[in-house]
């Protein structure tokens, strides 16, 4: 996810201070990974240098002056272009789990145990997400659904891997020098 584009999108509703942007980001997108203030201000500085935001006002305070930022026409265009680009599908062609299975088979360890532990870990995560989804607002429900669907696909892989484990073990044993 692009933090810069997300902040620009939040600014489209009107000018805001950096701390307001952080709060808006954390409420909508940062449940599991809130932004640090340093990330917000460093991103705003880059957006300012790129001409995607401008300082809309400065309020003196006890510490440094508080700047209010507004999106520019170039910033709106940048957000439109970003939204028009599809996200690249995340392909897990060489996952850590696959690597563990092959190493276990190469070293004579029980690969089925790895699958069992991973299945238990996935089910624990799914239960936690399901509880979170029940208590969440619609946006949080969508985030949880996205994660749950990925975990379901992983579980299907675990079942397929378990069904093919003996054949994979034989293939690996045959290929050894």
Automatic annotation (TrEMBL):
Transmembrane segments: none
InterPro entries: Tscrpt_reg_PadR_N (IPR005149), WH-like_DNA-bd_sf (IPR036388), WH_DNA-bd_sf (IPR036390)
SUPFAM superfamilies: Winged helix' DNA-binding domain
Domain named Transcription regulator PadR N-terminal: residues: 7-78
Pfam families: PadR
Domain of life where this protein originates: Bacteria
Name this protein carries in UniProt: Transcriptional regulator, PadR-like family
């Amino acid at each position: 996810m692009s933090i810069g584009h997300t902040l620009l999108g939040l600014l489209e509703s009107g000018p805001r201070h950096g701390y307001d942007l952080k709060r808006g980001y954390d409420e909508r997108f940062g449940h599991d990974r809130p932004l640090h203030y340093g990330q917000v201000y460093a991103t705003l500085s880059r957006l300012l240098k790129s001409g995607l935001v401008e300082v809309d006002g400065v309020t003196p305070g006890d510490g440094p002056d508080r700047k209010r930022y507004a999106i520019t026409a170039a910033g709106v265009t940048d957000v439109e272009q970003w939204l028009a680009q599809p996200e690249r599908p995340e392909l897990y062609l060489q996952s850590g789990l696959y690597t563990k299975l092959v190493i276990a088979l190469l070293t004579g360890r029980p690969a089925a145990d790895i699958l069992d532990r991973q299945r238990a870990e996935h089910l624990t995560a799914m239960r936690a997400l399901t509880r979170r989804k029940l208590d969440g607002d619609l946006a949080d429900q969508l985030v949880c659904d996205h994660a749950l669907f990925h975990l379901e696909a992983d579980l299907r892989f675990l079942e397929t891997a378990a069904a093919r484990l003996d054949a994979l073990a034989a293939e690996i044993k045959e290929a050894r020098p």
